[in-house]
Amino acid sequence: MSSAAEQEAVEAVSNAVGAVRSGQAAPVPHVDGGPGGPLGHQSDGRPDGRTNGQVKGQVLRAHVRPAPAVWPGSSHPLGARFHHGPDGTAGTNFAVWAQGAESVEVCLFDEAGAETACVLTELTHEIWHGFVPGVRPGQRYGFRVHGRWDPWTGVRHNPAKLLLDPYARAVDGDFTLPPEVYGHVRDWPQQYIADTVRDDRDSGPFVPKGVVVHDDDDWADDVRPKTPWADSVIYELHVRGFTMRHPGVPEELRGTYAGLAHPAAVEHLVKLGVTAVELLPVHQFAHEDHLLRRGLRNYWGYNSVGYFAPHAGYSSSGTAGQQVGEFKRMVRALHAAGIEVILDVVYNHTAEAGELGPTLSLRGFDNRGYYRLQSDQRRYADYTGCGNTLHAGRPHVLRLITDSLRYWVTEMGVDGFRFDLAAALARSMHDVDMLSPFLAVIAQDPVLRRVKLIAEPWDVGSGGYQVGAFPPLWTEWNDRYRDAVRDFWRGALPDVRDLGYRLSGSSDLYAWGGRRPYASVNFVTAHDGFTLRDLVSYERKHNDANGEAGRDGTNDNRSWNCGAEGETDDVRVGVLRRRQLRNLLTTLLLSTGVPMLVAGDEFGRTQGGNNNAYCQDNETGWVDWSLLEDPAWRSLFALTARLISLRHTHPVLRRRAFFSGRPQGADGLRDLAWFTPAGVEMTERDWYAPAAALGMYLSGRDIPGRDERGRQVTDDSFLVLLHTGDRPAAWVLPGAPWAEQYELVLDTSLEEQAVVPGTVHRAGETVTVPARSVLLLRVSGSRPPAASA
């Protein structure tokens, strides 16, 4: 900082102090000096000679009532736990980790907002704790932490800021982010030092409160589906967006956990045939300041602040703890329908953002302990693009994450997790490390190693792209599958080598360390990016409604608009787009691996070309159920359901082991073979040559593995013909030993699949494959299987 700037800042502070003393302004915030010259006037006597330079003002607090007696209580478990004390007295034990704090208060709030502050005098292994008699479920509370304010060394304690319990099981209220909730003066004139200027205004009246919840549910009446990975079909949905416009869900339940549990919502999932829902974040989250200033909200929820609390905004029954029971009833309803619940979880960063973000929870307890900081400890290491990164290599942070995960499994009934930006969690000091503490702890945990674990295998830091690198317990979002399939159907693949790997389970990525084909979660679309319909309707993003001048959202969409940008009345374009949708869905659901669909893609949901609808809590982001009234979109749903049913019926489409490509008998028949339109097996030269067509033969004769009775698993064999050319192609059907004849099962050139007559073709016959289409044929006459699983 220049000497002139330093002097300007000192004068500003001096003027503010003078205004306070003359009664013209609120108490002055603390100001800290940095290296190279103090902004204040008091030395803290540190060996490095730097000065803390705090100009102190009075900490303002709302009315505080006299505190009741606080008993020592216990340091375990963390959080607020209602129980009866040793003499039978009912009350709540409070315990919170706050390394470096000088004192900690738990603050209780009544319905009128009056505060009762109770000092926790017991300290065990950096955990402050105490038992408060008479505190019962439904009590709202928060913490205040006293300690040093020295942002230059990463210390940001501020007792004026009411902090949310990191272990709060329910949260009452919403984060609106007025200036009072910032630990520093958010609107300080010199923004380059704003984060060092402490704001002493009380945030208590402006922030949500934790709620004491009593949980004695043993889940004895619940039956988990426990669907094997290979048999899974995942359906990514947003609790609010999925139900907000559903005509069968009562209006008062729309947008809520109860709405998703409603029979009308569950019925759609059952008809479709999916085995698991992957819910966009349901941990309590906050809305970013820049969105609130534009009149928008964080719709997706990737901005967590409470890792134990179901997001209160999705509760129809209340936010004083009722959201916990409502979430559990939703899980039970889905389990009863045979559907697992997977949570999309965001442990890589929190809603407190960077040094200019609000002080809501972890920052106020121990900023240096919870977050990764740069060598300049005033700044945050950001591997997430969201301002901060949790330090998952530290024991207490690992405890927070694993305690949260176990809680959602054992007490909330969920079946698995998809980890947002999982590579950030797998970093040790700086680099991504597959032997990192986080991955090691998960691997040995007796609860977590048994549930479904899905990694988004990248972050935004150096070396963060880790597709194919996670250890055997994990499955991964496979974006290389997404890109190859998109490129093939828009005619942009230089050859079909990559497509072959993706269709057959991505063995080039996952055939190591005992991993299986289901390590690959195959997807063409996800919440982030175009919907499937927009993928074939737009070649560029249309994100104006986000208010970021088009800077947000990827420009690498790998989409093709079929001849017109956006919605059009051109009948030919509409017919082609629907065919492309059928091609994409058919490719996805016939590929080896675990398919993931996005809610509404099965009947043509559109976001109007917005490929980053994270802030669109409106019709843009919500599923439009009226589309099912259109026969064209209803037929797309029927095709999707039929394809999923085919997967469930035929084990050859959901293999538990990789294809070998080797002959399975004396006749030379292999478990996987690739064909050109000439009806001959592909050579190495064919893989490297430009091609618009690929034939894939899947043998069901000798599928590795046995059924539950120890019998060999066998199935029908299939021939899949994919043709992305703009003209029909003549295709010779392979002869012996592959087949004697083929029965047509599916033709994506047809709007209504019900009209497929089950046509039979002889081996060696030439068939016409329509332009831009997929044919699925069942093999017959080639040594039929002895049994079927």
From TrEMBL:
Keyword Hydrolase: yes
Top-level taxon of the source organism: Bacteria
Segments of this protein annotated with the region Disordered: 21-53, 543-562
Record keywords: Glycosidase, Hydrolase
Keyword Secreted: no
Biased composition (Basic and acidic residues): 543-555
InterPro entries documented for this protein: GH (IPR017853), GH13_cat_dom (IPR006047), GlgX_Isoamylase_N_E_set (IPR044505), Glyco_hydro_13_N (IPR004193), Glyco_hydro_b (IPR013780), Glycogen_debranch_GlgX (IPR011837), Ig-like_fold (IPR013783), Ig_E-set (IPR014756)
Domain Glycosyl hydrolase family 13 catalytic: 236-647
CDD domains found in the cross-reference section: AmyAc_Glg_debranch (cd11326), E_set_GDE_Isoamylase_N (cd02856)
Family annotation (PANTHER family): GLYCOGEN DEBRANCHING ENZYME
Recorded family membership: Belongs to the glycosyl hydrolase 13 family.
Official protein name in the record: Glycogen operon protein GlgX homolog
Species of origin: Streptomyces virginiae
